[in-house]
Write a structure and sequence with these properties.
By secondary structure, this protein is of the alpha/beta class. It is 26% helix and 22% strand.
C-alpha cells in the first residue's frame, strides 16, 4: 500500500486479557486497518500503554477491563448486535471506544470504525483512502442497532459458474468480506446431483 506521512500519533489497540477469539480477531483487523490508514506501526496490547497518544479500546465492559474501569458507567444499552463508536479524551491523549453488545458486534464495530475513516468494503476487496497523518476520530458518537436482525447470504446455488465452483480459499475470502458487511447467516442451498453431496 502507499506509504503516507509519518503519523502524528502513536497508536495502540487495547483488548481485554482472555478476550474471546472473535474479539482478538477484531483487534487484529482494527490494528491492520489503522496501520494501513496511517502508514505507521500500530500496536495491539492488553494494557493501556503510557506512550500511546491515540488509543482504541476494543470490546465491552464484559470483555475488556480497561473499558469497564474507564467507561463502564457510561456504557449504553446495546443488544447483542448493537455497536458503539465513541470518542474520549484525557489531558494528553485521544481515544475511541470501539465496542459492541457481544463479541461479534465488537468485530462489526471494528469494521464500522474503518468505514468511518474512509474504507469501503466490497465483496471482492476493500478500497482504502490514501494514508493520512492524523486520523479524524475526535467527534465520534455512534450507537447503531440493526433494522433487520437476520442478514443472510445464499451460497452454493445450482450453477456451474456459481460459488460451488470456488476454491476453499475463495470461500473463506467471501465469508470474510460478508462479515465486514455485517451478514450474520449463510444459507447453503444444495441439491442431490451435486458431487459433494453424500
Amino acid at each position: 500500500w502507499p506509504v503516507g506521512a509519518r503519523a502524528a500519533d502513536t497508536i495502540a489497540v487495547v483488548i481485554g486479557k482472555g478476550s474471546p477469539p472473535i474479539e482478538i480477531r477484531a483487534g487484529r483487523e482494527l490494528q491492520a486497518q489503522l496501520a494501513r490508514l496511517t502508514g505507521t506501526e500500530v500496536t495491539i496490547t492488553t494494557d493501556v500503554p503510557n506512550g500511546a497518544t491515540l488509543i482504541f479500546f476494543l470490546g465491552s465492559p464484559h470483555t475488556n477491563p480497561a473499558i469497564l474501569e474507564r467507561f463502564g458507567e457510561k456504557w449504553p444499552e446495546l443488544s447483542d448486535q448493537g455497536i458503539l463508536l465513541r470518542s474520549v479524551k484525557s489531558n494528553n491523549r485521544r481515544g475511541v471506544i470501539v465496542g459492541g453488545g457481544s463479541p461479534v458486534a465488537s468485530l462489526w464495530a471494528a469494521y464500522e470504525m474503518g468505514y468511518q475513516l474512509g474504507i469501503r468494503y466490497l465483496l471482492r476487496e476493500d478500497i482504502y483512502p490514501d494514508p493520512v497523518e492524523t486520523l479524524a476520530v475526535d467527534e465520534l458518537d455512534i450507537v447503531q442497532e440493526p433494522n433487520l436482525r437476520i442478514r443472510s447470504w445464499r451460497t452454493i446455488n445450482d450453477f456451474a459458474i456459481g460459488p460451488e465452483s470456488w476454491s476453499l480459499e475463495e470461500q473463506k475470502r467471501m465469508l470474510g468480506q460478508l462479515a465486514k458487511l455485517r451478514f450474520n447467516r449463510v444459507m447453503l442451498q444444495v441439491y442431490p446431483w451435486q458431487p459433494f453431496v453424500d
